[in-house]
Structures are given as structure tokens and as C-alpha cells.
Amino acid sequence: MTQEDAVKALLANQLVAVSALTDEQLDQMLEGSDLSGAAIAANWKSVKEELGAFVEVTDAELNAEGTEITGHAKYEKIGEGTEVVVTFAVNPETQSTTLNWDIQYPMGVLMQRAAMNTLMGIGIVFLTLLFLSFLIAQLHFIPDMVEKLSKKNKPAAAPAPAAVPAAPVVEEDYTDDLELVAVITAAIAASENTSSDGFVVRSIRKSNKRNWQRA
Questions:
Q1: Which domain holds residue 83?
Q2: Distance, CA of 2 to CA of 84 (rounded, Å)
């Protein structure tokens, strides 16, 4: 086995082991105390759905220090023209490992995704404007609704107070006054030995009883 084959096998073993981890195991690694294991679990979870199952390592290269392997791998959901660059590194001082995936799409795929994102953005803006137009069209119904609610909640008018019956008009009886005039006229005529035909009574004023008592 050549060195390249050995490096490819080492990288493939790492990728197979990580791909076989369940979601529960990945969550346990994320919550564990092993920082390098948590970093590998986080990196794999971020690309797991996009890559799919691991297929093979096509090539791999070990750096001069012997601490880092860089290679290309194939995955189930990745089509032709797209490269998956995998980097597996070991830190000799801390004995920690890192594993990263870099998905490099061709320009055509990137342009297609950009076009799809643009169309989705335009669609969202169009739907938002359509919804706002619908709301604005409904604004003219608001005054009618407010008026109906105002009429519904308006308190009933208080009943008009009952009309007070007018006091009956009392007609003044002048019979006693006329008799008094006749008596006074006769008395004056008797005192002057004249006839009462020449006397005319202009007015009669009733005096207060207190004035009669003083007299």
C-alpha cells in the first residue's frame, strides 16, 4: 500500500465513523466536555442534510508536517461538478482533532441558486405588496363599522318629562266691589244731600288690614 492509499484510507475511516453517528450521538457530543469532538459534531450537522451518505474518498494528501490531511470526497446528494473538500487535522500539542467540510459548487449551480433566491425575494415582495393593497382596499369599510358600533353602543334617549298641567285660571269676582261702590256712593251723596248720579268711581284699592287697625 502506498502512502497515498494509506492517507486516503485514514481519511475515509474518519468520514465513515462520523457519517455513522446518529442525531442523538451528535447531540451528546455537542453537550460533552470534549471540545474537539463537539466541534466535529457541529461541523457535520451543518452539512449532513446537504451531503447525504458518504460514498468514497477520491484523493487525499498529507502535509509536510504530517498533521493535516486534505482530500476530496464523494457524497450521495452531491452531483457531478461539485467538489467536497475535506480537511482532517491533528494538533500534536493538545492531541485534538478537527474535521471540516467545504462544498465547492460550480459557477452554474451558484448562478442557479442566486436566481432562485432572487425569484423568492421578488415573490415575497410581491405577496407583501398584494397583502398591503388588500388592507388598504378595506380601509373604507372602517368608518361604516365605527358608525355601526357607535349606534349600537349609544345609550337610549331619556324619556321626555311629563307635561305639567296648567293651573286653572281663577276668574276674579267683582260682585263685592260693585256693591261696595254703591254703598260708598250713597254715603257720599247722603252726606252732601246730592244725588249719586254724578259720582264716578275711578278705582278701588284694597287697604292692608294693619292700616285699618291703626286707624
A1: 3-104
A2: 23
Check if the beta carbon of residue 98 is closer than 8 Å to that of residue 89. Answer: yes
Distance between CA atoms of residues 158 and 45, nearest Å? 74
User: In this structure, what C-alpha cell is assigned to residue 94?
Assistant: 493538545
Give the end of a domain, one of 88, 104, 120. 104
DSSP output for 55-102: EEEEEEEE-TTSSEEEEEEEETT--TT-EEEEEEEEETTTTEEEEEEE
The answer to whether the beta carbons of residues 55 and 77 sit under 8 Å apart is no
Per residue in 30-50, pLDDT (tens digit) is 998 888 999 999 999 999 999
The model carries a pTM of 0.53
What is the rounded distance in angstroms from the CA atom of residue 143 to the CA atom of residue 135?
14
Cβ neighbors of 88 (< 8 A, separation 6 or more) are 10, 11, 14, 68, 69, 71, 97, 98, 99
